[in-house]
Amino acid sequence: xxxxxxxxxxxxxxxxxxxxxxxxxxxxxxxxxxxxxxxxxxxxxxxxxxxxxxxxxxxxxxxxxxxxxxxxxxxxxxxxxxxxxxxxxxxxxxxxxxxxxxxxxxxxxxxxxxxxxxxxxxxxxxxxxxxxxxxxxxxxxxxxxxxxxxxxxxxxxxxxxxxxxxxxxxxxxxxxxxxxxx
Length: 182
Known about the structure:
- By secondary structure, the protein is of the alpha+beta class.
- Helix content is 32%, strand content 20%.
- The chain has 6 helices and 6 strands.
- A 4-stranded antiparallel beta sheet has the order 2-1-3-4. Strands 5-6 form a two-stranded parallel sheet.
- The longest helix has 13 residues, at 142-154.
- It starts with 10 loop residues before the first strand and ends with a helix.
């Protein structure tokens, strides 16, 4: 399959490198994705998968190379891009002393979503947690927290969704809900 030209790419990663001390976690990673395409990363622990995701999420700077997403050069203006990003990582980024609804309303408000309550309720329905919307996150199982994390990542209708082991803690039914969302 031919590689799209840079102007046609939604995500363009060129010769990305990241070193920790003398150890290279990424060694010249390059790829292009068109809008709507998926990229799955497989490899053993320490292969650089999470490092690549952290760079794409603007949480870590590369040692060298470039990343452009949706026209944004992530080195030049990472803050502008973050508003268009959704991230599900090993940490839930949820507040355990807030309810599911309060968490999503908080994040919707931070992203400037026009109607935070409606967006939060719609997402809770999508991840099948609406009936538990008034429950504290601290009362949720790991799988429920993961589903809520997915809803949190979608609250701003991101143009890029990064998922780091999103099926962790999900039962078969919840995994099917995630597949439907993707």
